[in-house]
Specification:
The protein is of the alpha+beta class. Among the domains are: about 110 residues, Pdz3 Domain, CATH 2.30.42; about 210 residues, 2-enoyl-CoA Hydratase, Chain A, domain 1. The protein is built from 15 helices and 19 strands. The strands form 5 sheets. Strands 1, 2, 3, 4, 5 and 6 form a 6-stranded antiparallel beta sheet that branches. Helix 6 packs across helix 7 and helix 11 runs parallel beside helix 13. It is globular.
């Protein structure tokens, strides 16, 4: 303990030095031959680690794309410039989980603290993207009296449409999905924008509302004392916030439950992310309430849910099943050593590194024996690919599930399974994640040797235990119901309304029969 201040000082100095070195490297130019080395390095790692690399693109076509990229690398580029050249090629693989990480500028703790005491420049709005256009659908702080439905035409004189076309090439859904881009792009647009243009204190935007153009200057404002107090309050972890998985940054819950009618006949569960945290308790308490209320209908809403824990969706499915089930097929990996390539010490502070070093032998032993071979292929041992019994509190009524293009990864796994087993009626639009699975699970976090761009590669082929569709698209709903921008602005929900109207008609029919 006597040496603690010295250790702390060394850690701070090391952190500052690391940030400075990172930012200098990010701003420096890399020679063409070194960039080509990075391209070859990335492809070699993909071929060694990715268990289904040519799912949506042939080897011949991918080889051609990599070779074409290298032919264009004939001048020095910064890591960020290189990223904008390389990422569209990675996106062409059509694996939604696979992408290079944006080489961002790093900030010191003091700089981060200063940002936390300010309101965001663009994050105070909610957005809607349609084709090459962006609209503001919510203005939380009433900035400049900007109305919902206002189109953002330019940012600092550059057309938003140019940015959208550029950034769309950086993202991909699984396969040939048609709905994912608009959802993911509205969430990631300003991540790309600030990486490219930096965090500025102001921006001039040109807008269009009901045929009238307007030029507005946005400013990064300091938070008031009440705002800072509210931030502190939002960070408190009450029991309710833990169980419902509260997210302070958005002042919302990842999980929520309620009855949609006075007689408790329609139960409604909303899951924004399968984070797993406190999920066992949430589902146990929720389905006990549904059982006690004897609700005949259940709606599960996984719209705009980008996925998460396989354990959580397996547990959720156990509350919907009426017989033993197996959620996913055995997960394939490329080799027996694949589980040892997961960067065990990644993002560890000096103290965490020391602790992890102590338990590393146990971790190594567990991972070394976590695979098995069958029919010439190697698979990773997982609990969720084994039969699971229905939960005692399982719901046996009618299930509806709401999905849209923002339903991705684990959300697509469980909805594909529910549809295959005819356990639910899916309502909405095609999911952003593939019907037949994806490559994710856990990752090997590679770093390109010259540009230092991080490149996480999914190591598990995760597929729902279903009859495969071979559609190379998302999970298609049983009932397609579209949602417009005006619906969102007016806080209307045509997809949920369709379900409620359908239930009302069923209840009316039963009522007539009883008369």
């Amino acid at each position: 303990m006597k040496n603690y201040p010295v250790i702390l000082l060394l850690a701070v100095l090391w952190s500052c030095s690391s940030i400075k070195k990172h930012n200098e490297q990010r701003a420096s130019c890399i020679e063409p031959e070194q960039l080509k080395e990075d391209v070859d390095y990335a492809y070699s790692k993909l071929e060694k680690m990715h268990p289904h690399l040519y799912w949506y693109i042939s080897k011949q076509e991918l080889d051609r794309k990599f070779d074409s990229l290298k032919q264009t690398l004939n001048e020095p580029l910064t890591p960020l410039q290189f990223y904008f050249r390389f990422q569209p090629v990675i996106a062409s693989i059509r694996e939604g989980h696979l992408s290079l990480r944006i080489p961002r500028k790093k900030f010191t703790r003091q700089e981060i603290k200063n940002f936390e005491q300010q309101k965001g420049l663009f994050s105070r709005f909610e957005y809607y993207v349609k084709r090459d256009r962006m609209f503001i659908i919510e203005n939380r702080d009433g900035i400049e009296n900007i109305k919902p439905g206002t189109e953002v035409l330019t940012i600092n004189s550059i057309p938003v449409s140019e940015y959208i076309r550029k950034y769309r090439n950086l993202i991909s859904s699984d396969g040939y999905n048609t709905t994912f881009h608009a959802y993911y792009l509205k969430d990631l647009f300003f991540n790309f924008y600030t990486a490219e243009n930096g965090l500025s204190d102001s921006a001039i935007i040109e807008t269009l509302y009901k045929g009238k153009k307007n030029t507005i200057t946005l400013h990064r404002e300091s938070k008031s004392e009440s705002d800072l107090e509210k931030d502190k309050e939002m960070k408190k972890r009450t029991q309710e916030r833990k169980i419902n998985d509260y997210v302070a940054s958005s002042n919302s819950y990842n999980r929520s439950f309620k009855f949609l009618d006075k007689d408790s006949t329609i139960a409604y569960i909303k899951v924004k992310s399968f984070s797993r945290e406190y999920s066992n308790r949430f589902y146990k308490e929720t389905f006990a309430k549904i059982r006690n209320a004897k609700s005949p209908y259940l709606i599960i809403d996984v719209r705009n849910n980008y996925g998460g824990s396989l354990h959580e969706i397996n547990n959720l499915y156990s509350y919907l099943a009426d017989q033993p089930f197996t959620l996913i097929r055995p997960s394939q990996v490329t080799s027996k050593t694949t589980p040892l390539k997961t960067n065990y010490f990644r993002k560890s502070s000096p103290f965490e590194y020391a602790l992890k070093s102590i338990v590393y032998p146990s971790y190594f032993f567990a991972q070394a024996f976590s695979t098995y071979k069958k029919d010439g292929k190697v698979f990773y041992k997982m609990r969720v690919d084994k039969p699971t019994k229905p939960n005692k509190e399982a719901f046996h009524g009618k299930v509806f599930v709401l999905i849209n293009g923002g339903s991705f990864s684990a959300s697509s796994i469980i909805t594909a399974k529910l549809k295959n087993d005819k356990r639910a009626i899916l309502v909405g639009e095609e999911t952003g994640g593939a019907n037949d699975g994806t490559v994710a699970g856990f990752y090997s976090y590679q770093k390109l040797p010259n540009s230092k761009i991080r490149f996480p590669i999914g190591l598990l082929l995760v597929q729902p235990n279903i009859n495969m569709s071979d559609s190379k698209k998302g999970v298609v709903p049983d009932v397609i119901v579209k949602e417009s921008m005006q619906d969102i602005i007016n806080k209307k929900d045509p997809q949920l309304d369709w379900i409620r109207n359908t239930i009302a008609k069923e209840k009316e029919k039963r009522s007539v029969k009883k008369r």
